[in-house]
Amino acid sequence: MGLLSLAIWLPILSGGVLLAIGRDEHAGAVRWLALTAAFASLVVTLPLIGGFDTTTANMQFTESLPWIERFNVHYRLGVDGISMWFVPLTAFITVIVVIAAWQVITERVNQYMGAFLILSGLMVGVFAALDGLLFYVFFEATLIPMYLIIGVWGGPRRVYAAFKFFLYTLAGSLLMLVALIYLYYKSGGSFDILTWHKLPLGMSAQTLLFFAFFAAFAVKVPMWPVHTWLPDAHVEAPTGGSVVLAAIMLKLGAYGFLRFSLPITPDASHKWAWVIVALSLIAVVYIGLVALVQQDMKKLVAYSSIAHMGFVTFGFFMFSELGVSGGIVQMVSHGFVSGAMFLCIGVLYDRVHSREIASYGGVANTMPKFAAFAVLFAMANCGLPGTAGFVGEWMVILGAVKFNFWLAAIASTTLIFGAGYTLWMVKRVYFGAIANDHVRDLQDINAREFAMLAVLAIAVLWMGLYPKPFTDVMQVSVEALLQHVAVSKLGN
Questions:
Q1: Which of 100, 192, 384, 447 is the most exposed place for a label (fewest CB within 10 A)?
Q2: Using one digit for the tens of pLDDT, what is the confidence trace for 159-194?
Q3: d(CA 167, CA 272)
Q4: pLDDT for 376-389, tens place per residue?
């Protein structure tokens, strides 16, 4: 069993063990077992970083075993510079989520921890799968634990939010399944994704495949106007569910564009890029304005995520190294920043049991340590230079200036709107006089919460001040992808 298989199956099997433990009287042991399993899963991914060869665009740490031999389906895994960072990021976020739930989740603890561990392994499988059917199985299987997390441990409207999340994402993926079956027969009976990259497809076929993939990945990102499931899911999900949803699950859709849409349908991607660019810029501007009027902190950060992911898809479909690399960097940085933002909201909610901005005011007076972390993450969400939130956005804007100055000007408004809604929330929640007795009675973060937020703060500052390790890993793979996309399969 290779490193990627360990990264996938160690958390899944550990989650299965936790589900078998059963009763809440074992909650203490369950928590420690979950943390041990999550940490071990993270340690397994570290050799991927140390052993990754940045000079080649080939798949690395590959594994291949026959799975369903009759249909030539293989258990085929591997990562390149585009997908590598998402494997340790997923494992890292899972550790944070387990720590965040330590004292908050008191009922069905084994099921909660088990669901997140299983979800972690499935998401790693999406990023590592090199077989089309294997990718689809992992991609769809991620819906089940997240559906349960929202539906069981969520807020008052959790059942509605869980159903909406499940149905939106499942419906979008059905067209992708049709596209995968078509590619299987077109390639002579192969589900090998890298083989599909080389298929000579006509424009009509490419266009149909492009929009089939678009249906699946646009909902997952989510892009405007199929974004409406996300605010409901975030608001009703428990804190851990919101963290994983924003930090990792949204990235599955954006990753799909890079692994399927661009390399398999390059001509259709060029022809229909204006659709993606238009929808992305609408998300940046319109959703930014929607975020400005939110009264619920979770909804505000949820809409912020949609705007930031619009930046990602815009970067991808400029077909430039700066744009694609910037989009990938933005995906990783958004994983740190959005996860931290939702954790901060969770810290406040655990104490006051309200997400309304009006319920707070002057929190910095009673929780100075926590407020310092919260303001740092808010600044990163604004794209402050020196933080992780700045690097990807700046790369995309630089690429956009070369692509089209006016589109770059529209995209750059995200920095203005982002600063507007984020700073408005920070001012109302953290600064000023103490607003009420709930805030006056608040206790500052404990050692567990401090450690959790400190690790994320280090990641946000490290990526903001020294992004070279991230960009070096992806550079050669991005160049190879763009060279492949630039060569028309139609011979034009």
A1: 447
A2: 888 888 888 888 878 888 999 999 988 888 888 888
A3: 26
A4: 999 998 888 889 88
